[in-house]
Give the backbone structure.
Amino acid sequence: MILLLNNYLLYIVLGLSVFTLILFILLIVNYSKMKKIQRRYEKFMSKEDVDLEELLVQYTKKLNILLQNEKDIFTKIKEIEDIQSQCIQKVGVVRYKAIANTGADLSFAIALLDQQNDGVVLNGIYSRDGSYTYAKPIQDAKSTYTLSEEEQQALQKAINKRGM
């Protein structure tokens, strides 16, 4: 065994020397990084008017204000969403010729619905004698009044549209 070590002693010493050199280089690199961090720390701590405790208290107060503002904003968004669900979101329009031989299709039926399919159907009828407009309430996509074919088409167009 000793004879074997004597044969490879040069290689062992050379390998340990290279390993020691690598460790020494790593030590120098780590030392320089540590010095850099220490200089930055000393520079940060040398500022005279800096009170870290006061800074933390101020940032905590600001954070609490921001969190309260966030809660207020989410509350307001919920209120707006509730109001929006009752606004007109679905519209269906049908133009038609109410009376034959009157020219273009100047009569119309418009359905205006909210998210729950509540709203109104407006029907504007044009004739040579005048123009007439009728409104029929819609509750849950149905009317208590009889709807004309055009009004039903406008209502179906509105119902088939997606709300916001």
